[in-house]
Amino acid sequence: MFCTLNENFTSCACSESGDLDLIAIKGTCATSEDEKEICDGQARLFLILTFFTVMFEFMPPTLVPIGTLRAVDPNLKGLSMGLQWVILRIFGSIPGPIVLGKLMDMACLVWQEDDCDEQGSCWIYDNRLLWNAMFILPIAMKGINIFCFFLAGYYYKPKVSENESEKFDSIKSSGEESSEF
């Protein structure tokens, strides 16, 4: 197949040109300054997107239960929290990893195969498809999530009881009297 001598690979039948006289050397390929700048820019973009993805991923587990408990009738708080977690698990935690795994499998270009022609793990991924599966789809889902939170906040009308209404009126009227001095 191929011979290695001093970390050089020769007689590579899988080379793109089909030339068996080519020699491949172990290590990284030489790149120009322009390619390095592009790579650095992509790395910065990756880190920025990762920061915001993690930030928006860990913000809702704190905010959603607080919002739910404040918005629901006190007699229904237990039921509302239970239903919230069931819905979250049914529509998020169960199908999410399955869909993400399928998208990652679709991004695979070269699969490992054993002697029995059984498929193993992925060796090489298509970077663009993997980018879409790992960042674009989750960011789009987070965008939809944030949009729904803003809609809920916009359309939520708190229920004001008669006692609270009277307290508010008395505070408002006492504030107006004290502001005249």
TrEMBL record:
Transmembrane segments: 45-63, 83-100, 129-156
GO cellular component, as recorded: basolateral plasma membrane
Gene Ontology terms, MF aspect: sodium-independent organic anion transmembrane transporter activity
Pfam families: OATP
Phosphoprotein listed as a keyword: no
Keywords, sorted A to Z: Disulfide bond, Membrane, Transmembrane, Transmembrane helix
Classification via InterPro entries: MFS_trans_sf, OATP
One of the GO BP terms on file: sodium-independent organic anion transport
PANTHER family cross-referenced by the UniProt entry: ORGANIC ANION TRANSPORTER, SOLUTE CARRIER ORGANIC ANION TRANSPORTER FAMILY MEMBER 4A1
Protein known as: Solute carrier organic anion transporter family member
Source organism of this protein record: Oikopleura dioica (Tunicate)
Higher taxonomy: Eukaryota, Metazoa, Chordata, Tunicata, Appendicularia
